[in-house]
Amino acid sequence: MPAKKIFILDGHPAETSLSRAFAERYAGAARRAGHDVRIAHLSDLDFDDDFGRGNYNDFKPLEPALQSVMDDIEWSDHMVLTTPMWWGGLPARLKGLIDRAFVPGRAFDPRNPKLGGMPAPMLTGRSARVILTSDTPGWIMRLMYRRALIWQMRGQILGFVGIKPTRFTYFAGASDPKPGMIERWFGQVEKIGAAAA
């Protein structure tokens, strides 16, 4: 398998977390398999997460941290996001990063609509993996919540800017895992990291 350029974003706002551990395990396995890896931790990034003005004609300039994230996405063949699901969605700071960084002219082009009038995506040619942790059992996620966050990430965020396909790894019971469960999860993450999947 040819080497891939992989950008990993640990989307947990805390300095220590299961998401961070997954990001580092994936990175280590990918590097050992010969892939080129860049990694960023949300807790290390200095930026204003409030979109503020609320329009695409007069948005805030990107801080160096956000410029770096976008540079790393544009450099990559494959993007990995590790994040918890909180209240059915993304952590506020991670959502703020997306709101601020995925701007017109960098992530999508509203002046060049594709079929149906949707803006043209500008981050095509990349795949993604989202490693999602939650306390919600998988069957509740599927049947009651209809996998809403997964639909949002796949279609309305990553897919909207052209990053696809997006695959998901879902770990439930993250706040109080059964004995040995975290080590099994680490093994799964390392396996997909070695495969750059």
Automatic annotation (TrEMBL):
Enzyme class: oxidoreductase
TM annotation in the entry: none
Pfam families: Flavodoxin_2
Domain (Flavodoxin-like fold) ranges: 4-178
Keywords associated with the record: Oxidoreductase
InterPro entries: Flavodoxin_fold (IPR003680), Flavoprotein-like_sf (IPR029039), NAD(P)H_dehydrogenase_qn (IPR051545)
Single Gene Ontology MF annotation: oxidoreductase activity
Oxidoreductase recorded as keyword: yes
Matches recorded under SUPFAM superfamilies: Flavoproteins (SSF52218)
Name used for this protein in its record: NAD(P)H-dependent oxidoreductase
Organism of provenance: Sedimentitalea xiamensis
